[in-house]
Design a protein that fits this description.
The chain has a domain of 188 residues: P-loop containing nucleotide triphosphate hydrolases (Rossmann fold), CATH 3.40.50. 34% of the residues lie in helices and 27% in strands. It is built from 11 helices and 10 strands. α4 crosses α5, α4 packs parallel to α7 and α5 packs across α7. It is globular. The protein starts with 11 loop residues before the first helix and ends in a 5-residue tail after the last helix.
Length: 274
């Protein structure tokens, strides 16, 4: 049984207006084998939602379903319903490219393009046909990613001259340059040192003033420090010994870490397993 959070607002209408994603009975399979099953949760606007759980439980699979990145995996299938602002993300008239523009992705390892710092950030706007005022767009995105002061005098340098933490913030700036609504972050700090990790965490908290953020993390302290909501996913052994990801508990982060409703959640967040 999944424990769902209590209502966050005084009226159903206000609450519904804040919902960015609504996943209902979502099962995602690869070549007919379920990776996660029967996921039900909602993600609210301008909050950070953390997906936590042991390796192999399907956190990244679920994250990628929110911007249809699983479409790129041969044999992947999404059953159930994922709505984005009330629209079926997997509807026949929905353009996956537009989905990925509105819902940006930051990956585990920084993946700058083999281009200059400027051209990395300008890449998306140019694809959209923007030619004028590109300098202003690049500056604004780099400022929002807390990177402008560090790179403003070397915009023509290769992105690979930046440190790992700077490269990750550059990738965030590249997402922000196309003015998304949501940022999905898949273990964005796992390849970074503690100082760079702290910079990214501070940046996430700043960005949630304007963006909805969903993050996958193995770092319990990071989830506790940065997120508003936390979903704990673990694997359940099905018939035949197959392991399938299941949502155990979804609640305010404070509740998950101080008074979880399910003993499996308590065992994971306290380090007894996982």
């Amino acid at each position: 049984m999944v424990t769902q959070p209590s209502s966050h607002s005084s009226s159903d209408a206000d609450e519904a207006a804040q919902i960015v994603f609504a996943a209902e009975n979502v099962t995602i399979s690869y070549s007919g084998v379920p990776a996660i099953a029967d996921i039900n949760l909602t993600i609210n606007a301008r909050e950070i939602t953390a997906l936590i759980g042991p390796s192999g439980c399907g956190k990244s699979t679920l994250l990628r379903s929110f911007n249809r990145m699983n479409d790129l995996v041969v044999g992947a299938r999404v059953d159930g319903s994922i709505k984005y602002h009330g629209v079926d993300l997997y509807g026949p008239r929905v353009d996956p490219v537009e989905v990925r523009r509105r819902i940006g992705m930051v990956f585990q390892k920084p993946n700058p393009f083999p281009k200059s710092i400027f051209d990395n950030v300008a890449f998306g706007p140019r694809l959209k046909g923007k030619r004028r005022d590109l300098g202003d767009v690049v500056e604004a995105a780099l400022m929002r990613a807390a990177l402008w002061d560090e790179v403003k005098d070397k915009l023509n340098n290769s992105a690979f001259t930046l440190s790992g933490g700077q490269q990750q913030r550059l990738c965030i700036a590249r997402c922000l340059a196309v003015e998304p609504d949501v940022l999905l972050m898949d273990e964005p700090c796992s390849a970074l040192d503690p100082i760079a990790t702290a910079r990214i965490e501070d940046l996430m908290v700043e960005l949630k003033q304007d963006f909805t953020i969903v993050i996958v993390t193995h770092n319990m302290q990071q989830a506790a420090r940065t997120s508003d909501m936390t979903a704990f996913i673990t694997t359940d052994v099905q018939e035949g010994g197959k392991r399938v990801g299941q949502l155990v508990e979804f609640d305010r982060t404070g509740a998950i870490f101080t008074s979880p409703a399910d003993p499996r959640t308590e065992g994971y967040v306290t380090g007894r397993f996982g």
